[in-house]
Amino acid sequence: MTGDCSHLSFSRARGERLRGLAIASGLRKTEWYPWSMRVMLPRDCDIEQPDADEPAHGSGSWLRGLRGSPVLQWPIAMSERDPRGVLRAPNFECWKKASASRVGIAGYHFSFKAGGQVACHSSLEARLLAYFEMCPFVIEIRTQYPQWNREAFLAYCEEGRPFPVNELLTIDFMLTILIPGLPYPIYHGVSGKPSAHLQKKKVIRRHDRESGGLWEWGATHEIMTEKTVDDTEYESYRRMFEHMKYVELAELEHLGVDARVFAHDLLVTNATGNARRVVPMLGKRRGWDSDQSFRLLAVAIFLGYLKWDVRHLYAPWEPLRFVRP
To answer: SUPFAM superfamilies recorded for this chain (predicted)?
Structure first.
C-alpha cells in the first residue's frame, strides 16, 4: 500500500515546522480513526482480521515461534521508504530521544540493522534490541517509530491548530522481517513492557491502539516482556557484541565470506573443550589470531551461518553449543 504521504513529516524538525502551518483545502468530513492512516475500502471488501487464538499481552511470541535457519544477506537491499512513507534505516530518526524516557534506564545503543545509534527507553528495550539484532529473520530495526492519524492531522491543520503531542503514538520497535519463501517483507511492531504491568487497564488500552493502528496498514504487532529474553540469552548476546565491537558496517560483507567458511569448520570439527581452546585452534589453521577467530564466530551467528542454543551461556570458558541443521 503506497499513498500520498507528501503531507507527513519524517523528522522531528520537519514535524515542528509543519504543525499548525499546513492548511488542507476542501477536506471532506470523515470519521475519526485513531493513530494511523485510514485506507478507504469498498463497502463489500472483506478484511482478514487477526486470529482469536493469537498470543495476547505477552503470553507468547510470534517472532520466536518462527522456524528455520535463514541467512542474512549483507548489505541489505531495501527501498528508501516503507509502505507508510517513513524513511528506512539508516536515514530514519527515532521520534523520541532517549532523554524522553520517564521510567527505566534509557540510553543509545549501536545497531547494525539500524545503521547506527538507536534510542532505547529502558533496560528491557535494550534487552529486546539485542535479541532482534541476532535474529536473522529481522533485516531492519527502527526504534521509537511514529504513528499518527492522517485525517486527524489534516483536521488540525484545517483549523489552524497545532497537532497535539499526545495524539502521536510511538511504537517501541518497528521491525522489518524477511521469511524465506515469502516474496514480501513483514512489518512487525513490538511493544516492550514488564510482565507485571500487562494487566493494567491503561497498558491494555495503549497496546490495543498500537495493534489497531498497525493492522490498518498491514503491519503486525506483539508484546514482549523480560521473560521473552532471559538473563542467560541476553548475557550471551552481549558477549557476542563485545567480539563485534570493532566491526564496521562496511566490513560485514567482506567478513561474511570468512565467517561462512569458519562456520563450516566449527560445525564439522571433532575438537573438544571450551570455546577458548577450540575457536583459536580452528582459526589458527586459517591464519587468524584469537581475536579474529572470535570476531568471525560472532559474525557467523549474526548472519545466521551458525545458530546458538540460547539455553546455554555463550562464554570462552564454556563449550560451544550450536543448534545443528
So the answer is: Restriction endonuclease-like
Query: What are the φ and ψ backbone dihedral angles of 292, each rounded to 5 degrees?
Result: -65, -40
Spatial strand order in the sheet of 220-224: 138-147, 169-177, 186-192, 220-224
CA distance 254 to 231: 32
Cα(8)–Cα(97) distance, integer angstroms: 20
Distance CA 139, CA 168 (A): 26
Bridge partners of 193? none
Given a cut of 80, whether residue 236 has pLDDT beyond it is yes
Cis peptide before 90 (omega within 30 of 0): yes
Query: Which DSSP category does 194 fall into?
Result: -
Question: Mind listing the domains of the chain with CATH numbers?
Answer: 12-35+61-224 (3.40.1350.10), 231-303 (no CATH)
pTM: 0.77
Question: What is the rounded CA–CA span in Å between residue 59 and residue 46?
Answer: 29
Could you tell me where the DSSP H helices lie in the chain?
Answer: 12-18, 123-133, 150-159, 201-216, 231-243, 252-268, 275-285, 290-303
How far is Cα 110 from Cα 301, in angstroms, rounded to an integer?
A: 17
- Give me the DSSP letters along 234-267: HHHHHHHHHHTTT--GGGHHHHHHHHHHHHHHHH
Averaged pLDDT, 54-79: 75
